[in-house]
Protein 1
Amino acid sequence: LSTQIEELTQLVEEEWLAEERIKQARSKAEEMIKKAREEVNTIMLETQASLSSTNPQTDRREEFEEAKSRITSEHQGKLASVKKLAEKNLDRVVKIIVEEVTRVES
Amino acid sequence: LSVLQIRSHIEKETEAEIQNILAKAEAEAKAIVEDAKKEAARLIEEQKQKQASESLAKERSELAILRMNQRAELTRMKAEWLDRAFEEAKQRLDKLAENSGSSTYRDFLAGLVFESTVKMRGSKFTIQADNRESEILKGNLNAISKRIVQAKGVEVELQIETKPDIPPGVIIRSPDERQYYNNTLEARLTSVRQRLSGQIYSLLFKEGA
């Protein structure tokens, strides 16, 4: 009988140890999930920081500056050409105005 | 079952349970991190797209404003040239008026009176002009009258009134002041500008003119 009691006691102890090991595994699993959530927090914080810091699009800006510069240059060319035409035609136009003003019906 | 077998079974079951718990946790943790990484990548991409779109809209708007300002500048420049053309014409007309003693100007003054009176009703007219031009007209009044009579077919009575503040040219009034014809160079220039601005503008900027 004492042998049987001893064996049963060992079995109970064995069950208890098993429960303990499973508890530890569950705790370890919770820890793994917790760490994963911490990592998620870090990722999201870094992402937020990255989002809030302005990200100038250098390529686009350069392209835009080029377009602006080209348009400005074209415009300067147009102004110069208009000025040249006006300078060339001014005397003729002034003569026409004077002729019109001094042309009286007879 | 022997005690030994039971212990071995407990051992196996426990180990399997532990491995299962850990494997599930590992998979869940991995999935949580992967999802977060995907979400972070999605947010960054979304932000990039948004920035690109905003940047493009801003640039387009800036270029549109630039073009609009350039058009305004060009229009302003052309308007300044048009002003300049009329200003120079005014200067030439002033010089012409300064040389009022010339036969050309004398004929022109007579033409101004003729043109005005022919367009007006009636036969009595007061010609207003400055001192110098009044004198010129006085010396030429008979000839002017004859021309008007020929054109209107009735006798006319012309009276000259000297008004020192009148610009070059003449102003003709009927005696009852109901008719008024401003034929000064200034008024004629304004009229030409109103009538011919578009044409002058085109000629001024015409290529190969």
Note: DSSP finds five helices and four strands in chain B.
Protein 2
Amino acid sequence: MTLAMRKDIGCGAVLLVVAAVFWTQRGDRDEVTARFPDFVLVVLALLGITVIVRGLLRRAGEDTPGDKKDRRFLVAAIVLMLLWALGMGLVGFTISGVLAFVVIAQLIRRARPSARLLAQDGAVAVVLVVACFFVFTKVLLVPLPVSVLIGM
Amino acid sequence: MLSDLGQALTQVLSPQMLLLCVVGVIAGMAVGATPGLSATVGLALLLPITFTMDPTSGLVLMGAFYMGAIYGGSFTAILVNAPGTPSSIATTFDGFPMTKAGRSEVAIIGVTVASVVGGLVGVLGLATLAPLLANVVLAFGPQEYFWLGIFGLTMIAGLAAKSLVKGFAAGFLGLLISTIGISPVGGEVRFTFGSTDMQGGVPLIVALIGLFTVPTIVDLIVAPESRSASMLKDQQQRGRKVLRTTVRDILSRPVNLIRSSLIGTFVGILPGAGGNVANLIAYNEAKRTSKRAHNFGKGEVDGVVAPEAANNAVVGGGLVPLLTLGIPGAPPDAVIFGVLLLHGLRPGNELFTEQGVLTFTFILALAVAALLMAPVGLLAGRGLQRLVVRTPTHYLAPAIGVLTIVGSYAVRNNPLDVILMVLLGLAGYGLRHLGLPPAAIVLGVVLGPIIETGFAQGMLAASASAAPWTSFFTRPLSIGIILLVLLGLAWPILSNRKAKQQERAEEEAAS
């Protein structure tokens, strides 16, 4: 099975799963207002089936070039973004922001972390995140989540 | 009326009003360039400041701020693939590829020229056609809004780079996301997975930031070397003549500028549509009619000119129903409506007759603000562009992350929105690899509420007839838009066929 076939079948399966999961969550029913979301779900499922069928009918020669990415960095990026989003509500905007900033900077540098680089990245992170915190809380009056430890 | 206009002109050219225009444009650009802070949020924040001002100064400041905010949204759309406001969604389609190709300065200059022209055309529409256009708006019913949304969906044909089926699947995923929460008509709760937090649905800005920005951050972490190459290219291409050449290049194709500005003015007049729809339609029309259609999506300057001319034209267009009928054309207009009411000014004919000087000062100030975007924007925009280009990737990616997180939180001050934004962004990253374009998903999220509300309201309005659905096909304005939809669907097929025929003819001639 070629990469293009696998992508089509995977894409179709995702569409079908999304349509099925949302179908179970349709909630309150009203004759007029339920028609639109129902229509969207049905079309989505049909498009999913079409994509799968097209994938299965692909000829062996039709393939797309695969993009070689370092999976370790991909997984790290996904985990980091999720932790950052979850962490902001728990430890506050500033702490989560500075930590995530430094870790992303280190990841992109691809170099072994050294005390000098960590201090440099940390300083930039603190300046940017704290500046952002004050602009949003004091100028734009957006109350950002704060840490109970440092109050910002 | 002419004496009012003369007095207004004198007033708007006074140092105090000019200063307010400059301050408004700069502040608006700063807010507009921040993902998550829309023009509406910025205007709402500005509202208390105008309490202490006289009505003219307050309105002038608000108008200049609005104009600047819509323009500022294009900077981050071009430089980091994060539209500052929903009005700049389509700007990312070619703006970010231009940055990747080292042509971000050309893109910034392009959007500046487009925004100035669009802003002026919108103001001209407001000043000259207001009463006439206001009557056209009244003829627009839910059926027409439904078809307008469907017309917007035909853009998927252009966004789907490789597979039309996958493009439509992405668009329908967007429509599905837009239906999460309480239905706009009837108030039924659906797709909330038992969470009361989800009843408010997925805010457009949260979806927008997530689907466009998170994949960019992930890309920068996974393959930072790709950005370094484009950064070098940008430094090589910068020259003294870039400004003059780009301005001349854009002005040499006035049809795109004028058409996009007219689209923006007209869509702005339609209450509820606004810049987020206008920029998409203008982009689609620019692509559909361009001789360089094959370059769209790869870094075509007309692809950034069209949406930016349209979204700034919306500013003037949106004020037409507000000043004549008291109906805000777009959400920011509702805040300006608040300022009018606060000072005891009632929209309608008397606003132009009894308060003529004030009204014309406000309209002329919008034109001045549009003109000011050229010097202010070129300085600030190119400064920001150089800053972004020179910032090392290991600082740019986390800096975009900070803005992304804070921007999505600021929409409703809700940590759940940040989680939702990241989840949508990561899903968008995965779906992109499966061939589902995130831009088409965003298109669905933007158009979903317009289509659903139009459909439900249209069905309810015609419920007395035996077959209410026929009302969607019998109204003259609806028929006009249906023809546009059919044209929108047929055009890519016809142009593809034409291109293939041309290719075949060239091959035959070569052999």
Note: DSSP finds five helices and no strands in chain A.
